[in-house]
Amino acid sequence: MKPSTLYRLAWALWACLAPELCLAGGIALRLGPPGLGTGGPNPLSIPPAGGDVALSYVTDKGVEYNASVISLSVARRTSIKSGFYLSLGGGVAISANGGGFGPYAGFGYEGGCGWIGCFTAEYQQALGVGLGPVVAPSALRMGIIRWF
Amino acid sequence: MNPRALRGATGLTLGLSAIEEGDERFRPAASLAGQWGDEWWTQLQIYGRRQKPASQTTYLLGGGRSYGIFGSKNLMARVGLALASESTTIARSDGDDKATNTNVGLYLGLSYQSSSRVYLTIDWGSAVFPAGLSLIFLSTARKQNITAGVGWHL
Fold first, then answer.
1. Cα-Cα end-to-end distance for chain A
2. What CATH number matches the domain at B11-131+141-153, 3.40.50.2000, 2.40.160.20, 2.40.110.10, 3.30.420.10?
3. CB distance B69–A97 less than 8 Å?
4. Going by C-beta distance under 8 Å and a sequence separation of 6 or more, which residues neighbour residue A132?
5. How many CB pairs under 8 A join A and B?
6. pLDDT-above-70 percentage for chain A
7. Residue ranges of the domains in chain A?
8. Going by fewer Cβ within 10 Å, which terminus of chain A is more open, N or C?
9. A20-29 pLDDT, tens per residue?
């Protein structure tokens, strides 16, 4: 590997480890039990299990990338950084009965900012068609979003 | 999101719904919806089944505000309250055994409506109900609906 390639790789790694050098935006960590088509979500585990955790990366242009046990999705938000918002997009929906591609929607709120970040709550729902029956996972989650 | 006026005002919609209750089984339902003024909506959905000696009927009533989103005149977010009433009756020779449960929750949904006097609607929303004290741990019950309908502005 040429030194210039190594330099570029090192720079890319550094840029992603230092978020302020990447696109401006926010990272949200939300906790809540998923509804995976088994009759409804169980109460949130203490400590939270892996399926109870959802991560989102939101750009300052209002595009968000979501990853959780119910879906991997890309969506566009009506607003960022304060108040109520809606996210609408698409991706992969996953449940206990299968999975598939389809629309994703999130109804959320952001506010009450502190030194750690801002409070955020979101109800997420998705539809998936393609692998087995139509799946319709959902989750009500709360957590923190930190803008940088 | 700012409240936006859609074309026309009061409208009535008849439709068919597929309602899912957390188990990914979609139940057929009849839907009657109203659009009041520019920003308010209501919806009644009725569904159930009869399998002797038991019969089950659910009324799902929702209502609230509509908000135009992403600058569209046709695509709306719908936020409001939902009321569910579920009745189960078991016929017995010594008299029917009937139980009714009601619950109040939050409605969150999306709606697409074409711009014409006779219009088409497609709704996708969820009525989210608190699952008793387990709501503290974010446990909910929900009734999700996918509805297609035909309406007309009065």
1. 34
2. 2.40.160.20
3. no
4. A97, A98, A99, A100
5. 82
6. 89
7. 23-147
8. N
9. 556 678 999 9
Q: Please provide the size of chain B in residues.
A: 154
pLDDT band at residue B109 using 50, 70 and 90 as cut-offs: very high
> Residue B48: CB partners within 8 Å, gap ≥ 6?
B55, B56, B57, B58
- Would you call A70 helix, strand, or coil by DSSP? coil
Nearest to B140 among A39, A41, A85 (CB): A41
pLDDT tens figures, A102-140: 999 999 999 999 999 999 999 999 999 998 889 999 999
Contact B24 A133 (CB under 8 A): yes
Q: Measured between CB atoms, does B79 come within 8 Å of chain A?
A: yes
Give the DSSP letter string of chain B.
----PPSSS-EEEEEEEEEE-SSSPEEEEEEEEEEETTTEEEEEEEEEEEETTEEEEEEEEEEEEEEE-TT-SSEEEEEEEEEEEEEEEE--TT--EEEEEEEEEEEEEEEEE-SSSEEEEEEEEEEEEE-GGGGGGT-EEEEEEEEEEEEEE-
Residue with tokens 């089944």: B49
Contacts of B26 in chain A (CB under 8 A): 134
Strand (E) or helix (H) holding A79: none
Residue of A nearest to B125 (CA): A125
Cβ atoms B39, B77 nearer than 8 A: no
Give the start-to-end residue ranges of the domains of chain B. 11-131+141-153
Q: Which fold does the domain A23-147 belong to in CATH? A: Porin (2.40.160)
Cα A60 to the chain's mean position, in Å? 15
How far A111 CA lies from chain B's nearest CA (Å)?
Answer: 15
Separation CA B66–CA B39 (nearest Å): 5
B3-12, B18-27, B89-98 — which is least confidently predicted? B3-12
